[in-house]
Target: Glucan 1,6-alpha-glucosidase
Amino acid sequence: MSLVTLTVNRFAKEWQKNMEMEKKYWWQSSVIYQIYPRSFMDSNNDGIGDLRGIISKLDYLKTLGIDAIWLSPVYKSPQDDNGYDISDYTDIDPMFGNLEDMTLLISKAKEYGIQIIMDLVLNHTSDEHPWFIEAKKSRDNLYHDYYVWVDGEEGILPNDLKACFGGSAWEWVPERKQYYLHQFSVRQPDLNWENPKLRAEIYKMICWWINKGVGGFRLDVIDLIGKEPLLGITSDGPHLHEYIKELNLNTWHNKDLLTVGETWSATPKTAEIYSNPDGSEFSMVFQFEHILLDQQEGKSKWDLAPLDFMKLKQVLSKWQTELSDGGWNSLFWNNHDLPRIVSRWGNDGQYREESAKMLATIIHGMKGTPYIYQGEELGMTNVRYDISEYRDIETLNLYKERLEEGYEKEDIMASIYAKGRDNARTPMQWELSANAGFSQMAPWIKVNPNYLQINAGEQLLREDSVFHYYRQLIALRKKYEVIRSGNYELLYAENPQIFAYQRTYGNEKLKVICNFTDSTANICSEDFKNYELLLCNYPATEEEHQLRPYEARMYINAVRRS
Ligand code: NOJ
Model:
């Protein structure tokens, strides 16, 4: 090959790479709303939310302005882990409706310009999945190697690997005289991704959903699929990216879909592999570094550490700058596994509305795709229930385990109040009426009694509500390229009260400045000279040089169109 051809080829390659980097996908300017179906809206009054309930609230979601719904699992499931234990990937659990309802949801949502993102749980199934029912019968049936089996002796565990929901990750099956792996509950056996037959079945199932018209997928604990449990490797196994690339090629490759991997172990470096703009893996991942800040190092999520604001600034900024153009960020505070953010980093008492809006401002001004978890747009809060009123398997197992280990009841409850997953799973607070308008029947889990003060009905009518503030944040992302694409620079880096940053895109500049405390904070008003105030969570003020408790401001430079 001549030098000229080589050079031309190199330029062609570089050009293609640049084009890929430059290409804008719909999900890069979108805002996603997560629905936890059993707690969203109950249409048939059995106390459990369902698909028809979601359809009845599409208007509400349209008003908010979101582009896609991430739907937590609605597949057939014994509900040991509220649907993250699937027994049939191509059917809907009767508690949520049926396939016809699902098809209707996909098409109705499309009429509103809203895509449906399905939750794919590919690391494990339910123990009631026909594959597992067969697999556990013998070592030589058709599905025998769809799961992870290890020889051993009853009573002598293969190793001391622990399940995320407590106890050993190994369970003995007498029929096979072997242990199977379960990284979550004993009813969630881990799938064996080393098996090409299993992988092919999964691809077929995903293509079936793509043909139904879904807008993408959220991939549950996807960093676990390459596990090597006997070596103690759970996340980031040696074949992980090989599996993901093959999964991509056989399913959503070159299809205009949003894919987001749940990866608790991600670092900016690995996130660049997962979300490479060449489209070989996912659109983006959920990383949890900012979420993990409130637990003691090397301990479990229940072992609380004091909140460290300076670390929060550093971690969120690191993800903005280090991922940059090499990948794509997702932006979130909340989901169905996490406590309500206003009760964690905000103030759910006197400054609930101010702090809920402030927390929203910080991440909605950043680069990436923002996710809103149902009720976050109302500033819904954590709960403090009696232990008998909790429903989550993880919480109930923890309570039992820690009592047996001799922990004080009060200390266990303090962890549950702060971190329990049911904080996020109480029914959506729609109205002032009975059961917060979620259902006419007693819901599967108690409604947060503060629905009398915090509910969508009241907030829709009130212009300065948390709901309307979120609506404005979403609208601003649609309007300003600098919010979608601008570079990020941290401001006031050493300030212990203020989180502020600047975004720059061409001559457009955006400044976001937030007070994370319940006292006033001084700023330099010169910094915002020639800037227009786009949004603020307080009424207008003369005190430009001072932020009120939890005050948030978003500015744009006035000369940007020169
Ligand atoms: C992560 C999900 O978000 C969580 O709810 C679930 O319990 C585990 N994965 C197991 O599927």
